[in-house]
Design brief:
Elements lengths: L7 H16 L20 H15 L5 H6 L3 H13 L6
Helix pairs in contact: 1-2, 1-4
Protein name: Acyl carrier protein
InterPro entries: ACP-like_sf, PP-bd_ACP
Length: about 90
């Protein structure tokens, strides 16, 4: 999948869908400024499962430090967006 074919809206939609499914909460209850660890039912294992699904979905791999630095839904979306567009070059 090329970066031209992936919009921010698609990333937001898929990320929200994965979070909702993993946490068993309505996607409509998840907002961009929500703190991930404060979402109902959130724990580190569930968040890692969401990240793993996102990596498989977009065929990317996130840096561990970047994953643990993410605090909000918007930050997670931004991390995915940068990875999909190739802005996170491996150093």
């Amino acid at each position: 999948m090329t970066s031209e074919s992936v919009s921010r809206e698609q990333i937001v939609s898929v990320t929200t869908e994965y979070l909702a499914a993993e946490l068993k909460i309505p996607a409509t209850g998840i907002g961009g400024t929500d703190v991930l660890r404060e979402l109902p039912g959130a724990d580190s294992m569930k968040m890692l499962r969401v990240v793993s699904k996102l990596e498989r979905r977009w065929n990317v791999e996130f840096d561990d430090e970047a994953i643990f630095a993410v605090k909000t839904v918007d930050e997670l979306v931004l991390m995915v967006e940068k990875s999909v567009s190739g802005d996170l070059a491996a150093s």
